[in-house]
Structures are given as structure tokens and as C-alpha cells.
Amino acid sequence: MTASFPGRFPDTRLRRLRRHDWLRRAVAETTLSAADLVWPLFVHDHRAPVAVPSMPGVERLPIEGVVRAAAEAVRLGIPAIAVFPVTEPTLKTDDGRLALDPDNLVCRTVHAIKRELGDTVGIICDVALDPYTTHGHDGLLVDGRILNDETVEVLVRQAVVLAEAGCHVVAPSDMMDGRVGAIREHLDAAGHEGVCILSYAAKYASAFYGPFRDAVGSKAALGVTDKKTYQMDPANTDEALREVALDLAEGADMVMVKPAGTALDIVHRVKTTFGVPTFAYQVSGEYAMIQAAAANGWLDGPAAALESVLVMKRAGADGILTYFAPELARSLGS
């Protein structure tokens, strides 16, 4: 069949570069590899894994399970894991004092990983009190108000305890003002000048954190209260740049934007403005949405997972925390 075409055909045909898979890969502007991923893991003090119902495919793992997952990360080329503890309710207190115990669950997990794997996998540990407090907040709560400076005094001690356990990176996710500088000062004074700080610099008060709070057991404790007095308003962008600038000035080595999927513009602005290592966290709610849609046959789950993370890299993220990390690493390595 001969088609008629009034006028001349286009000289430039961008579709030519999309014709073959090998050609699309050759001209791709953004590439994703296992080296771009960080695998978040939940550890609990039980002998068997327990599924997280709101995060299909994710489990709370015993220490031995986390060690095995860390070894799998090494095999897959994933450079780092992020460890989050599930604290027994009977061990939680108003002041979260268990965070300062060098024999707590996270510290024992770090010791176990280091014994088995040494420094072959990076270990990132969260600095915040919410897994340890009866009220589920990231800081000290007095008369309905989160105390900033008093919380920072506790966080610096928590960071030193984690560094002494052997973690490579402390990641303050609490959003208290001034905590990065205080943590850097105390780490250095304690002889841990080589421990990096990955600051959750632009962490929004998001509706997408619910499944994570289920996983660590802080949702019930938090109840109907929220974290809007210390986490950022999702309406703001310039404020995110001010937060990042302050944390870098205080000594942060890397910065985080969270949640990633609803803040791609922030990831891009942070990376282009500061040019520093910029991480993005594909949070639990983003993961759960893709998994739920895939389970209902509404999405191609693996394709949606890959695309969702690829666009974070395209926006400017150097590293991406995602619960899809092992699946993506396997597919990218094939």
C-alpha cells in the first residue's frame, strides 16, 4: 500500500534511535545499575522472619537473616544496606533510652555483619528516636511539644554508639535543627572522624510513610498525632534548599530527599544547586502502591519498579534507597 503525503517527509526522525533495543540502550541518557541502590532492611529480635503485611515481599528479619541479606547485597553488587530496628513494645520508653545502649538490637546486628563481611558492604544506621519511644516521635516529647536541643543531645550520643558498633554511615532522619553539626563534633571527638553523615536534609511530612511505621512498630504509638512540627511541609521547595545548605555547612557528607517519588523536583534542585552526593528514598508507601497494583494485575510490577527508580536517577539522585533493590539488581545484572 502506497501512502500519500502532502509535502516533503521529515529530515529528522527521532524514532530511528528507538528502533532497536541495542540502539535504545546505546543512546540512553540515564543508566541505572546495582551500584546506585541501597537496600533498607528491618531487623527484629526473633528467630524467624515475619512478613510486613502492608509491604508485600518485605520481612522483619532476625539478625542472622540481615547478615544473609547483606551477603546477598555483596553478591548482587549493591554497595550498602540501611538497617532499621523493630523494638519490642516492652522495651520502649518515653525518652527512647534504648537507642543509647551499645548492646541494643541495631548494634548487635552491625557487629554480626562486620564479623561476617567486614567492610565489603556499607552499613547505614538511622539516627532518630522513633523506634525506641512509646509515643513514636523522633525526639523527646514534653507537654505535646518535641524538644529540639534536648533531643540533639540524645542523638549525638546515639550516633557515637552506632559508630562504635562499626557502622560506616550515620543517617540522622529526625529533622531537628542543628543536629548534623553536633553529631559531627561528637563523632570526631570520639575518634570516629571517618564515619560519614548522610543527612535526611529534606524530609517531608508525608502520607507515604505508613507501611514503614507498621514495619518498625511505631504507627500504633504515634496514633493520630503527626510530625508536621519538625518534618517539612510538602508545599515547600526553597525551604528544602535552605535545609540542605545548613546541613552541608554543619558537615554532612551526603544529603537525602524523602520521599523520592513525590519530590523529584527537589532531588533535581538539590543536585544542580549543590553538586554533592544526593540520595533519594523510595519510601514504603511508594513501594506498597506498586506492589498492590501489580498484585491486582493493574501494572507490570517489575517494569513499574524499574521505571520508578530510573526516574529518580534521572532527576539527579546518586543513590536510591528502595525495597526493590534486590529484584532490581538481579534484573539489571542479567
Overview of the molecule:
This protein is of the alpha/beta class and 334 residues long. 40% of the residues lie in helices and 17% in strands. It has helices spanning 21-26, 63-76, 105-117, 148-165, 179-189, 210-216, 219-222, 238-250, 264-274, 284-295, 301-315, 325-332; strands spanning 37-44, 50-51, 59-61, 80-86, 122-127, 140-142, 145-147, 169-172, 196-203, 254-258, 278-281, 319-321.
Question: What is the level 1 CATH name?
Answer: Alpha Beta
- Kindly state the percentage of residues in helix: 25-40%
Structural class: alpha/beta
How would you characterize the largest beta sheet? Answer: 8 strands, parallel, barrel
Rg computed from alpha carbons, rounded to a whole number of angstroms: 21 Å
- Kindly report how far apart the N and C termini lie: 41 Å
Q: CATH homologous superfamily name?
A: Aldolase class I
The helix tally amounts to: 12
Low-confidence blocks of residues? none
Q: Domains counted in the coordinates: how many?
A: 1
Average pLDDT works out at: 95
**CATH fold-type name:** TIM Barrel
Secondary-structure element order, N to C? HEEEHEHEEEHEHEHHHEHEHHEH
